[in-house]
């Protein structure tokens, strides 16, 4: 069973209030002890219509210049 802590309630409420569909992305989602880079779609009925957890995380290492590893913070989605 997934135990997730969603930071998305505000998005679903706004979608309902304005009777629109909202796509909210690049939101950290904690689920089963792992942090995911998540995008959600909410309909005007406040219901979650779709959810995507980023699969291909951005990692770059240019010696002597820049190093960034999204995978140090986020888990890859499924």
From TrEMBL:
Ranges for domain CN hydrolase come to: 1-78
The alphabetical list of record keywords is:
Hydrolase
Biological process GO terms, please? asparagine metabolic process; glutamine metabolic process; oxaloacetate metabolic process
Q: Name one GO cellular component term.
A: mitochondrion
- Give one GO molecular function term: omega-amidase activity
Q: What is this protein called?
A: Carbon-nitrogen hydrolase
């Amino acid at each position: 069973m997934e135990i997730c802590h969603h930071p998305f309630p505000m998005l679903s409420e706004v979608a309902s209030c304005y009777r629109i569909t909202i796509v909210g992305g690049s939101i950290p989602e904690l689920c089963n002890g792992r942090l995911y880079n998540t995008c959600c779609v909410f309909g005007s009925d406040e219901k979650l219509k779709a959810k995507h957890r980023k699969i291909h995380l951005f990692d770059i290492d240019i010696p002597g210049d820049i190093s960034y590893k999204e995978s140090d913070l986020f888990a890859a989605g499924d």
